Amino acid sequence: IQSINKDAKISVLISSSFECARIHFTVLPKEANVVAQVQPLDFDFFHSSPVAVFYYGQHGDNWVITEVSQCVSQWGYLPAYFTENEQAIEKTIHADDFTRVRNMLLRSIENGLNTLNQRFRIYQEDGAVDWVSDYTQIIRNPAGEVIELICYWVDISQDKENEVLYTEIINATTEGFWLLDANQKIIDANRA
Fold it and tell me: What residues have CB less than 8 Å from 68, skipping those under 6 apart?
């Protein structure tokens, strides 16, 4: 095909797990009424799970959230809060964690990494603070340029509360305590 005119419809299926892309061309009749269609998230089951999914696309020099799963409601937010507010992530990630989280993402992109896992605090819509584990996929085109970010947030607040309780119990005892890993290396010890 040497050229495509304005009457052609292009449907593209591209996946980072495949080495090729298929492009299907269909000539539309002149009387066809073409409307924009919003595509659903790739993983529809995330809409009803405890995992919140964020899709980011590049808009000029900025990364903006283009789609977010309904699961953000567990923190009191509607998806529109994130898709219609360019400052939403900056306002949602805890002020003491935002710079670290942002810098780690930028370093990962610069170093050519395709995945990143971070733990940080977020504000719920009502101002309460929770902890999340964020797993980010950095999607690149064949030239290595970042074209999309997909972030998965899982609430780990209960795990963090358990860690604090564990530390308080272990440090309160007057007996010596060591926690060893599978190779018998000390990974934690109390003050006793």
Answer: 52, 53, 54, 55, 79, 82, 83
**Which of 47, 51, 69 has the alpha carbon at shortest distance from 156?**
51
Cα separations in angstroms, 104 against 60, 109, 145: 21, 9, 18
- Taking only the tens place, the pLDDT of each residue in 7-49 is 544 444 444 444 444 555 566 666 666 555 455 545 455 555 6
Element (H, E) at 43: none
Cβ-Cβ contacts under 8 Å for 4 (sequence gap 6 or more): 10, 25
The CA distance from 53 to 154, in Å, is: 9
* Alpha carbon of residue 59 to chain centroid: 17
Residue 168 binned pLDDT confidence (cut-offs 50, 70, 90): confident
* Buried/exposed 88-119: b ≥16 CB within 10 Å, e otherwise: bbeebbeeeebeebeebbeebbeeeeeebebe
- Per the CB < 8 A criterion, the answer to whether 178 and 168 are in contact is no
Give, in degrees to the nearest 5, the angle at Cα 119 between 116 and 125.
115
- List, as one string, the DSSP characters of 24-36: EEEEPPTT-----
Is the predicted pLDDT of residue 2 greater than 50, yes or no? no
Q: What whole-number distance in Å separates Cα of residue 57 and Cα of residue 99? A: 20
Cα gap 76→125, rounded to integer Å: 5
